Amino acid sequence: MNATIDLLQSHRSIRKFTDQKIPRELLLDLIRAGQCAATSNHVQAYSVIHVVNPDNRRAIAELAGGQAYIAECSDFLVFCADMKRSTEAAERAGADVIRGTTEQLVVASVDTALMAQNVAIAAESEGLGLCYIGGIRNNPAEISSLLRLPEHVYPVFGMCLGYPDQAPEVKPRLSVDTILKQDYYQDEEDQNRVAEFDDTMHRYYRERTGGNKDTTWSEQLKPLFTTKLRPHMKSFLQDRGFDVK
C-alpha cells in the first residue's frame, strides 16, 4: 500500500489538541493545497474564514452545540459556499446573471467540500489532526452574522486544526461490497452486510467506551431519520439568496 492510501485509511477525528500552534506558512500551504481540488467549471465557489478572534471562537463553539475544541484548537476554519464572487465577476464581464438556482447551490456546496477535504488530507500529511464541525449549521444565521457573510454565501461546515493530543482508533466503515455497485444499483445483499456492520460497530463502541456504549450503526441512525434535522436550513438558504429555483 502506498503512503497516500495508508494516510487516507488512517483518518480519525481529533477533538483534543496540544498547545502547539500551526505555523502561519504551513496553514497557508494547507489552503493552497485545498485550492488545487477539482472545481466545477473552474468556478472555485468557496471562501474560507480563518476565525482568530477568541471571543468569536467561543461564540461559535456554543452556537455549534457546545463543542469546546473549537475554541481550544490551534486554528479554526469555516468553509463557506460562495457564489457571490463568481456571479459578480460574470456580471462585470457583461453577463445577465441568474442567481439562486439549485445547481448553483449544489456546485458551491460540492466545490467547498472538495476543497476542504484537500485541506484535511494535506493537514494529516503534516502530522496535524482535525475535526469537521457540521454543528455550525445548528445556528447558521447567527454564525453568518458573526462572520459578516454576504448574500449568496453560506457556512457549510467548520474545521478544527491542530497537533493531536489523543490517538483514537480508526472508526470502521461499511464494507466496499456494500457501497460499490457494478453497472447497476443492486441491494440484494445490503441487509445482510448492514447487519454484519452493526455487529462490527457494536464491538467497536463497547471496546472504545469500556462497555459503556451499547449500540449499533443502525441504532445510531434512528434520531437522524425520525425527526426533521435542521429544518431551518431551507429558509436560511433562501434568505442567503439560494432560492433553489
TrEMBL record:
Could you tell me which residue ranges the Nitroreductase domain spans?
A: 9-163
Query: Per UniProt, which keywords does this protein have?
Result: Flavoprotein, FMN, NADP, Oxidoreductase
Tell me which SUPFAM superfamilies the record gives. FMN-dependent nitroreductase-like
Q: Which InterPro entries match?
A: Flavin_OxRdtase_Frp, Nitroreductase, Nitroreductase-like
The residues the entry assigns to the signal sequence are none
Gene3D superfamilies annotated for this entry? NADH Oxidase (3.40.109.10)
Q: Sorted alphabetically, which NCBIfam families does this protein's record hold?
A: PRK10765.1
Q: Which family does it belong to?
A: Belongs to the flavin oxidoreductase frp family.
Protein name listed in UniProt: Oxygen-insensitive NADPH nitroreductase
The protein's organism comes out as Marinobacter qingdaonensis
The primary gene name is nfsA
